[in-house]
């Protein structure tokens, strides 16, 4: 379909032909020539319009491509901004971790010698303390030393174990306990029942209740007790084992040694 421009051209051609017709009326060759000229002009106008339409389509496609590329650029810009913020955050976290590692190294150089001194102090304390549950307490300290030499145990876990051992030793001063074990006295080992009342008293009684005695912290030796303490020690053993109700007991608590 021709547009208005082609119509105008056709009109001009028609007018020109009309004028030519006036001057050359009755000449067939002239009329044929005019018709050929008009046809050529119409064909040229149609080709021009088709080219214009093609250019318009190409321009529209290029515009669409440009808009699509622009959208991708905008999305990439937003993404790059987000990545840059993430990289900055990771760099800050990296610096923080490096500082924490340096702090941990400083703490390790200070806390490890402290834990070693704590274990040494606990070991000396158990050696000088009332000798109850000697194997259990010695094994606990030995485990602490073994843990200190292990690389697969964290510093915090090592410190927790040391503090737990201290807590257990502290609890011994506030409870009452009865247990059975071997007593070496006068070169003779016997199976006896032990009674521990805090750290105030550690007494023993043979299984046949024939002999009763206690650990004298002043002399650091086992000593026999008079028979009048036999029933009280036996009752204390039953109370510690929750075989009897709590009651007032007459126990041989040694007087503290005078400091020289």
Question: Could you characterize what this model shows?
Answer:
The protein is of the alpha+beta class and 260 residues long. Among the domains are: 107-172; 176-240, no CATH class. Helices cover 63% and strands 13% of the residues. The protein is built from five helices and five strands, in the order ααααβββββα. The chain has a five-stranded antiparallel beta sheet with strand order 1-2-3-4-5, covered by helices on one side. The radius of gyration is 55 Å and the shape is rod-shaped.
**How are strands sequenced across the largest beta sheet?**
1-2-3-4-5
| Mean pLDDT over the residues | 82
Beta strand % = 5-15%
- Class per helix and strand makeup: alpha+beta
Q: What is the chain-wise order of helices and strands?
A: HHHHEEEEEH
Q: Label the overall shape.
A: rod-shaped
Number of helical stretches of at least 4 residues: 5
Largest sheet: 5 strands, antiparallel
Keywords:
260 residues, alpha+beta, rod-shaped, single chain, five-stranded antiparallel beta sheet, 5 strands
Task: Summarize this entry quickly.
The protein has 5 helices and 5 strands; from the N terminus they run H-H-H-H-E-E-E-E-E-H. The chain is an alpha+beta fold and 260 residues long.
What is the strand and helix layout of this fold?
Elements: H1 4-23, H2 28-128, H3 134-148, H4 155-172, E1 176-185, E2 188-197, E3 201-206, E4 212-216, E5 221-224, H5 230-240
Antiparallel strand pairs: 1-2, 2-3, 3-4, 4-5
């Amino acid at each position: 379909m021709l547009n208005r421009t082609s119509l105008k051209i056709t009109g001009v051609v028609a007018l020109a032909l009309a004028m030519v017709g006036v001057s050359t009326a009755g000449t067939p060759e002239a009329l044929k020539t005019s018709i050929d000229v008009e046809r050529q002009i119409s064909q040229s106008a149609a080709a021009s319009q088709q080219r214009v339409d093609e250019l318009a389509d190409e321009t529209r496609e290029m515009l669409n491509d440009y808009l699509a590329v622009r959208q991708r650029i905008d999305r990439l810009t937003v993404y790059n901004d987000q990545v840059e913020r993430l990289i900055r955050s990771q760099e800050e976290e990296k610096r923080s971790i490096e500082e924490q590692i340096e702090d941990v190294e400083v703490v390790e150089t200070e806390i490890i010698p402290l834990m070693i001194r704590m274990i040494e102090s606990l070991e000396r304390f158990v050696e000088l303390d009332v000798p109850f549950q000697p194997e259990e307490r010695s094994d606990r300290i030995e485990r602490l030393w073994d843990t200190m030499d292990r690389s697969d145990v964290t510093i915090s876990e090592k410190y927790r174990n040391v503090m737990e051992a201290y807590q257990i030793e502290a609890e011994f001063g506030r409870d009452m306990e009865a247990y059975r074990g071997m007593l070496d006295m006068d070169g003779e080992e016997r199976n006896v029942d032990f009674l521990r009342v805090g750290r105030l008293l550690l007494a023993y009684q043979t299984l046949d209740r024939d002999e009763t005695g206690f650990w004298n912290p002043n002399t650091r030796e086992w000593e026999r007790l008079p028979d009048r303490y036999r029933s009280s020690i036996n009752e204390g053993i039953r109370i510690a084992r929750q075989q009897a109700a709590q009651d007032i007991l007459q126990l041989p608590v040694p007087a503290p040694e005078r400091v020289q």
